[in-house]
Design goal:
The structure is a homopentamer.
Chain A: H1 4-9, H2 20-31, E1 37-41, H3 44-47, H4 66-72, E2 79-82, H5 84-90, E3 98-102, H6 125-135, E4 138-148, H7 153-169, E5 173-180, H8 191-203, E6 208-211, H9 219-226, E7 230-234, H10 241-253, E8 259-262, H11 264-267, H12 271-287, H13 291-299
Parallel strand pairs in A: 1-2, 1-8, 2-3, 3-4, 4-5, 5-6, 6-7, 7-8
Chain lengths: 300, 300, 300, 300, 300
């Protein structure tokens, strides 16, 4: 859909003039020149602790953190998002991955009914910039989670704004995970709230916002609310791969959703099946393949 | 009412001597040499989420964030106030707008009865100064909301004071939104409280204070309490345009209110009607036109 | 009582050697070479909002913030204490006033029974130093309020200590407002607590402490507890001017109180009466006039 | 198991290039070229106050803090972890010890049911780097405790991440103590939570994580979850030394646990017995000796 | 007991090499070459407000803050500890006193049952270093109070650690006041807790720890727990001077306590009696005089 010239128009004005080329290059890397995004989310070892990586219907390969890197290394994801610490441990063996550093993470031990959700910065954008240089890894962007409606919302909006400003200044892509959560939020999947989250994302200057799927009939509403910020949908709990692809195909092609940001649906598979699944998603998002061709990747 | 020489007298003493001309230029830009102000408020995508932009009696054009920029680009507003992030996404296509960067914003998900209101800084004045230079946009000032009577009031007064000091130092106009809110506030529209808010505004050194309308009989009281700080009235929920103009006309001409700071009443209209409405307001505030001429803009 | 040589002995040891002359000059300015102090307190537009400036028995002139400057400009006060923001708006027209920048202020909306009192810094001492230089105003000192007995007392003691240290370093006079307040304080006017407040003041290194009047029989106790820190008494609600002068005369001449720090009793009068009243106070504190001569100023 | 070449592969990517040799040297020092770790934990004088050092079944030698240094000085531990302050008092007489500076510590006076656990930084990594240089001690790393599941978890994750980043940058080994604790944690020894803690450790980039023993059947799970981060088991309350060695032997040789991090089981013995015990542990972890040889150290 | 060579061994390793001589000199000054300490505590005007200085059985001289300086100036105390602010007001007339700057202080208005105790820093060590230089006073060290067992304990441990590190770096002696206090502390005088406080003191690297007297039978335990950190006992409420000396004599000579840190027992006497009392204490702690000689000072 986009070409390089279109992508150039997507460079935000807070990218420092010296870093406009770098930003554009990063945008091309993770969108494969399309403006769309397939983000492989790998921050769950903190967010969900061990339960996503071990148990019934989960490949035993998933228990090893390196599994995530092996999948990302296949070349069939736009970028791989995880914590800087984890990257520091494995990155030396996986230099071809486009990394997005997930800057905040919390466990799910303390539940909303006990205490309002807040997730603090593990690293600053400056850390990322320094780490990028010293590691020579292809670090293309940063990610940050906001819990909209939490009593700590104001602090998280402030941190998100700071991060996006600093990321853009340094030529990095900025991606927000925005989830309505807190005592004030009766229904975390309320489609009007999710559309509101999209609006918050563009007001903060995010390049992409990861949201929970508000339901097919509300996708257009979200795309409009997000304006020039791309929307990528979270995968949620493991679901049937073919159904996932059908839904994704429709989201991207009919509703102009920018892509998806998923983790469990990929890494809970063994490496071979995970890569096949990535190929299918990659094809739909980046290569405009038809649904059947995508499904065929699962079976090859 | 004012001329340039009068405006010069309005330069606060904390404007750095190197930036006095810049401040004066900014003041002229947003007041069109009159000392009065028509501020188009566009921070609601965070403040009110999606409900202001979508629904019954709202133009479908309002759903797209770009609608705000198209209206502001008409040339018939004094300035357009919104978040830096949003400006970074659209500013490149809208270089003629006079921008006021709204420095704090929160959603309305957490209500006062649950938790005292607090709205943190999304960006610093230094960010704005840097962004202004790197973007070459016409950024003329900054805005900040204080919830007077909140248990976090003291923190917000401190931030507001910091921002105004830094803004003036750098030649930028400083505008406060002051709303009484919190458990301690029985009636957010209590006219005595609103007059108090005006006094707080001038003590913090604000150039303009946006307040809710305390009622016609209390406007003079507010203007006195604000002293050398101009008062602009919020628009609130959508109301009939003609009635709005009649009220504005009286506020400005009879009660010496400096103007208005409105959003929903403008952007919920389609572009054509929104611009007509802006023309009418622009005429009343900046051009001293008579009420009928203003109303005629609505019908042309 | 003092002469310049005595004043020299009052220079605290934390005044930077380069600024000893400046400190001495400031001390002379506000004490008129006497070591005593008549402070005109003008921070109530934040502290008390509009109710001190408008209503029954209040001159209509009081509604305009400029009224405060006109009174201070009469030359019959030692110094005028108000917020930096307000000074920035009017100072250019009132260059002969000796200003004390009141560094913190809060409204009285949130009452002690709802939330423990805390008043944050609106500006730093460095801001004041910079503002003094850029404005060329005669800024002679800074003021800060501590609520002793509040659960936030520790934070306020720390800020007060910081401010006094920085003020002295830069040659500025440091004045504390110390009021016992909070759930732990059964009686805000308990004379033992007020004497304690005086001791806190000298331990923090304040030059003057503004306290509420503990009652005639306790003044000596307070003066002793304060040691080398001068005590000035707050005026409180409006009272009969002649009675005020009688009390002041006794406080200064019999009990060795350093003077007074009052606002409402002055600014709620019209300009003429306010200046007469200031002349009378000025005479008692700085010129050793007899009570009848002071009273005569009210009638001239 | 490892040789130097293997150890080189363990250097995290956030070690500054100038400090890679230093990091490697430190890693060799504490792992004796094996990649495994015997950490002598000596932070209990703050963590447990005096009760670990005085009482029934505790050698009277344990009461003197120097006891810890005498044991560590025997040469039969990989490293000795304690607070910088304590090191500053005794280090000059114990220059051959490899020190790990424990950066945070709290007492156990305030229990979880009263207040959620939080342990703040006593020193920064920069303090450690400076202290290392000025003291010329062999300081090889830093340690930090996280209470996973505390309402302050997010703040501790952020501090831990900061510390690890800074430690690695400066060539220091980074070790986390991770204990599930807080109202949200029903069972602090829940093996699934402990496995989750291991995953958190590797995501933060820790080199080693000290955990409580989840039970034999869960060790493999933990080792997998930790990936490239080594696991060392806490000793807990004093237990029979022979049983301890049997368990350790199995943990290291059968379950690939990296070693142990213990305190009370060592320092509550007199010096002679403490050193014998250390020799046995040292042999198992670093020298691959058989269990009987280890047990013989206890009897020699 | 000690000689200079012994004192040299007491220099902590975090004293910067350039400041080792300065530290040693300060240590000699306050211990009179003995390693022991008589600290005159004068921070009560904030800690206890006015009640320690005025009332039954208190010399009327005590009401004047200068009384403290006159006593310290007698030359018969090791050092005088009070707030920097108070020193700034009187120090110019009392240049021969060895000052310890008490860095934090709070009043006792808010009681533990209302709110957990927390005492914030009034000044930083850098302030003290700067003040020492500009005032040319003999400032030999700093003091800080920790409330062990408070919910704010972690913050105070962190501040204490910071202060000790910075003090030592700059050649200053670091003294902790450690008092168990807070809802979690059932008995503030529990001897096991007090022994624990001694252990905390040495782990933070303090040179001396001021504790409440745990009772004669527990002193040895405390001395052991403190290791290389000296213990000085608080005096508490006024008691009979002869009994005080008898107890002190036994504490120092039999139980190897390093000395005492007292205020009220001294300053509530008139100057003559206060100095006699100081001479007696000075003799016991620094000059190894016998008890009767000490008692004779009281009567001379």
């Amino acid at each position: 859909m986009n070409n390089s010239k279109d992508l150039e128009k997507m460079i935000p004005l807070n990218v420092h003039s010296d870093n406009k080329n770098l930003y554009l290059e990063n945008l091309k890397k993770i969108t494969k020149d399309t403006g769309k995004l397939f983000l492989f989310a790998g921050d769950q070892k903190i967010e969900h602790l061990n339960k996503d990586f071990y148990g019934k219907d989960i490949s035993s390969q998933s228990a090893d953190p390196e599994h995530l890197f092996k999948i990302a290394n296949s070349g069939y994801v736009g970028c791989f998002a995880t914590q800087l610490g984890l990257i520091s441990k494995y990155g030396n063996d996986y230099k071809n991955i486009n990394y997005v550093v997930k800057l905040n993470s919390k466990t799910d031990l303390v539940q909303t009914k006990q205490s309002e959700p807040m997730s603090s910065l593990l690293n600053t954008v400056q850390d990322v910039v320094d780490f990028k240089q010293s590691s020579a890894l292809s670090i293309v962007g940063v990610g940050y989670t906001i819990y909209l409606g939490s009593e700590y919302e104001s602090a998280m909006l402030a941190q998100a704004s700071r991060i996006i400003y600093d990321a853009h200044k340094n030529g990095l892509i900025a991606i927000l995970w925005i989830y309505p959560r807190g005592k004030a939020v009766k229904n975390e999947l309320d489609p009007e709230l999710i559309a509101g989250a999209c609006g918050v994302g563009v007001c903060l200057g995010a390049d992409f916002v990861k949201i929970n799927n508000p339901g097919k009939e509300y996708l257009t509403n979200c795309v409009k609310a997000a304006g020039r910020t791309g929307i990528v949908l979270a995968g949620g709990k493991h679901k049937d791969s073919e159904i996932f692809l059908e839904e994704l195909y429709e989201q991207v092609n009919k509703f102009k959703i920018s892509g998806c940001a998923i983790g469990r649906n990929i890494h809970q598979k063994d490496l071979d099946n995970a890569v096949r699944f990535c190929k299918a998603i990659y094809g739909i998002i980046y290569e405009n393949i038809i649904l059947n061709d995508a499904k065929n990747y699962l079976k090859e």
